[in-house]
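The instructor's notes for this session suggest beginning with a concrete chain rather than abstract definitions. Hand out the sequence below and ask the class to guess, before any prediction is shown, which regions might be ordered.
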Amino acid sequence: MKKPSEASAARSGFRRNTRKRQGEAAEAAFLSKATDLGFDVAKPWGDSAQFDFIVHAGPRCWRVQVKSARPHRSWGYKMKATGNRATYTKEDIDFIVAYIVPENVWYVVPIEALNGGAGLWFNPQPGSKSRFEIYREAWCLMACPREGGCHPEISVHRRCLAGGAPGECPFRR
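After discussion, reveal the predicted structure:
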């Protein structure tokens, strides 16, 4: 039997913010962000795929898993890099895109960067030395395929033009 507070919440249409709802909200935010940048985005039918979205960028399609982070006790944010209790691999997905909701910050992390690890930690503060900080707003990783030039219709900040040797991608050194 439901507690009186649960019954009144159900009747009023109010529902608690569960992890499932948080994930759904992050997926909706990802869909908006990626399409605003110019990516073509598709969602697989059902919940059976290891990835949430297929992102099309010119000659390449990427399998993307979207995650949203919760604050960690001591610092920053953390999340699991697992699906159905198994750590994601390059056979499952190409990218984890992490949305830090309270900061409105995105991290575009290639699966290879996890090195088989099951967790991601973020500290989106100025001067952060977090392991995954290099992937903050790294949408160019999907816009510029590893084996070619950037897709001209996708409007992302290209880090290969932002410093270092002209045209040198900081992620592919």
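Then share the key points. Residues 16-161 form a domain with the Trna Endonuclease; Chain: A, domain 1 fold (CATH 3.40.1350.10). Strands lie at 40-42, 53-57, 60-68, 70-71, 77-80, 82-83, 86-87, 95-100, 105-110, 119-122.
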